[in-house]
Design goal:
mainly alpha; 210 residues
Length: 210
């Protein structure tokens, strides 16, 4: 056997190892797809319910000016997380490990800022809800809006846990140009949260009045 050439036993062992890794990747992607599909149906049902309530007889539309400005700022921050993770994926495909870690931490920092901003936004929504109840206005949409935004924020926190897991493995050199599905799935999850957030705000705005 020539020097440097792998033995048949080693080649067979590597083949089984690669097959196991591919099976793990496929299972993770399939489970991720089911999870995203269930979340999509949940948020879609919530937005449909919001629209139905908004156009119910005797229900007054929420003034557009009552949508807290923090929610608009949150949109820019969500986009920032998505951009940072897109760049993280681009760098891991080129084996730029340092850049990968930098963009992952950038995404984490923006995500933390998003949660801080959302906290103030939810507080403002609660004040608007209390004002609506004191005025005896029929605006039950405030409760639905608060619930959907709060649930979205919880999933953002879950995304931060996922992102921290990816950062941990990035420092253990688990990702390279051939195997980086963990980074890919994390980025896709945040892109999904981004799309859901934009759709929710668009729905709230279209059912409001000036």
């Amino acid at each position: 056997m020539a020097a440097g050439q792998a033995s048949p036993t080693a080649m067979l062992r590597n083949s089984f190892s690669n097959l196991s890794m591919r099976r793990e990747e496929y299972q993770a992607k399939f489970g991720f797809a089911l999870f995203i599909a269930s979340l999509a149906m949940f948020f879609l049902a919530g937005m449909v319910g919001f629209v139905i309530i908004s156009f119910a007889r005797g229900v007054r539309a929420i003034p557009l000016t009552n949508i807290p400005w923090q929610l608009i700022l949150g949109t820019l921050l969500m986009l920032g997380v998505s951009v940072a993770l897109h760049l993280a994926v681009a760098n891991v495909r080129r084996e730029r490990q340092l850049r990968l870690r930098q963009w992952l931490w950038t995404a984490m920092g923006i995500a933390i800022l998003f949660i801080v901003v959302q906290t103030f936004g939810l507080e403002a929504l609660l004040k608007n809800l209390e004002g609506s109840l004191l005025a005896q206005d029929r605006q039950p949409q405030y409760g639905v809006v608060f619930f959907l935004i709060f649930v979205h924020a919880l999933h953002v926190i879950g995304g931060m846990v996922f992102l921290r897991w990816v950062i941990y493995h990035a420092y253990r050199d688990r990702y390279d140009h051939e195997s980086h599905w963990g980074v890919d799935l994390c980025a896709l999850y945040w892109h999904f949260l981004d799309i859901v957030w934009i759709l929710m705000l668009t729905t709230f705005a279209l059912t409001s009045h000036l």
